[in-house]
Amino acid sequence: MSGRTDSVAGPAEAEAEAEETERAEPGVRHEEDAEDGAEDDAEFYDEARRARWVATGTGALLALAGVAAALLRLAGPAPALVPAAYATGAAVCTAAAGLGARGRTRRALWLLIAGTMIMALGDQFD
Questions:
Q1: What is the pLDDT of residues 79-117, one digit of tens each?
Q2: Which domain covers residue 92, as residue numbers?
Q3: Number of structural domains found in the chain
Q4: 6 in a domain, yes or no?
Q5: What secondary structure does DSSP assign to the chain, as a single string?
Q6: pTM tops 0.70, yes or no
Q7: Could you tell me if residue 4 is inside a domain?
């Protein structure tokens, strides 16, 4: 015998007992874990909501800018390719705003980049 009783356990024994309990009950969450999980979930949903709003707002803003630029270039002496490029970029940004509103923020980001590049390409033809 080691001279220790079972009632006196050091930190290593307490950790081993907690791991053993976790292995025995893998799906059970304790109260402290549940509270931490609820806070993590709330933060996740806030970040997701913020990302949707940013993607939707940015897409709408770029779409409006593209439409305005297309109308201004259409009224001027620019080649026909320039307003078409701005209008196409605005349409892509509108699609990005729609995807952002549905929660597809990564795809919306790439469409926003593509739409802006299309509009910049149209500006190069001027």
A1: 999 999 999 999 999 999 999 999 899 999 999 999 999
A2: 11-124
A3: 1
A4: no
A5: --S--TT---HHHHHHHHHHHHHHSTT---HHHHHHHHHHHHHHHHHHHHHHHHHHHHHHHHHHHHHHHHHHHHHTT--THHHHHHHHHHHHHHHHHHHHHTT-HHHHHHHHHHHHHHHHHHHHT-
A6: no
A7: no
